[in-house]
Write a structure and sequence with these properties.
This protein is an alpha+beta fold and about 180 residues long. It contains four helices and eight strands. The chain has an eight-stranded mixed sheet with strand order 1-2-3-4-5-6-8-7, with helices on both faces. The chain binds coenzyme A. The site of coenzyme A has 22 residues, from strand 5, helix 3 and helix 4.
Length: about 180
């Protein structure tokens, strides 16, 4: 699904929200390699990001062409700041009412409301598509994300204990959060 470009202002900065274009494939892979190293809150370590140029182009085209998923990029004063995406959980009729959300910003673009803006626009799109619930997983030590999701109406429905084991031998839980739409 394409997100038609929108302009916003936050904290005196110009924010552009729009879908990705295939030419941005390398930028998106580089972004993933950076953001996965900035916090322990995303899916993997930077050295595990192995997407090729062509796989990333397919990822962009699949999201832009689908009616049950969307990739939304954010630019702050012209600089790529991160993205938010949603995907229908499955094509099975029983679970077609559920969408999952992912979001990740470069650290330098956190803490001034961009995450909230992206999540709000994303939730509206998900609702417009007819989904009945939005779901996500957040690492138990990620207070900022947890508070953002809670303030948007997500509630905690369960935990996977020790879901993440870090290279230093420590663990964190995954928390499953859901918002009814
Ligand atoms: C989590 C993330 C998307 C939040 O986006 P953000 O732009 O930093 O958050 P916002 O500035 O919109 O703040 C949203 C809310 O978070 C909370 N918050 C912000 N900074 C916080 C902090 N340092 N500590 C605790 N809570 C904080 C506040 O409740 C805030 O609500 P408010 O708007 O009423 O003040 C972003 O920080 C990020 O991408 N982090 C790295 C990757 C990540 O953790 N992804 C999420 C995986 S589930």
């Amino acid at each position: 699904m394409i997100f038609e470009e929108e302009k916003h202002e936050l904290d005196g900065k110009e924010i552009i929200l729009r879908s990705a274009v295939p030419d941005e494939a390398d930028m998106l892979v580089d972004y993933l390699k950076t953001v996965t190293g900035e916090t322990p809150f995303l899916l993997c370590y930077p050295d595990e990001v192995k997407y090729t140029h062509n796989e990333e182009i397919k990822f962009i085209e699949d999201h832009n062409g689908s009616d049950s998923s969307m990739l939304l990029l954010a630019f702050v004063d012209g600089e790529y700041a991160g993205n938010c995406s949603f995907d229908g959980i499955t094509v099975s009729r029983r679970a077609k009412h559920r969408a999952s959300i992912g979001i990740g910003l470069f650290q330098k673009f956190t803490g001034f409301g961009l995450g909230r803006l992206l999540m709000e626009r994303m939730l509206e799109k998900i609702q417009d598509c007819g989904f009945e619930q939005a779901e996500l997983t957040v690492v138990s030590t990620n207070d900022r994300a947890y508070r953002l999701y809670e303030s948007l109406g997500f509630r905690e429905y369960g935990r996977i204990p020790n879901a993440n084991k870090y290279d230093d031998g420590t663990y964190s839980d995954d928390i499953i959060m859901i918002k009814s739409l």
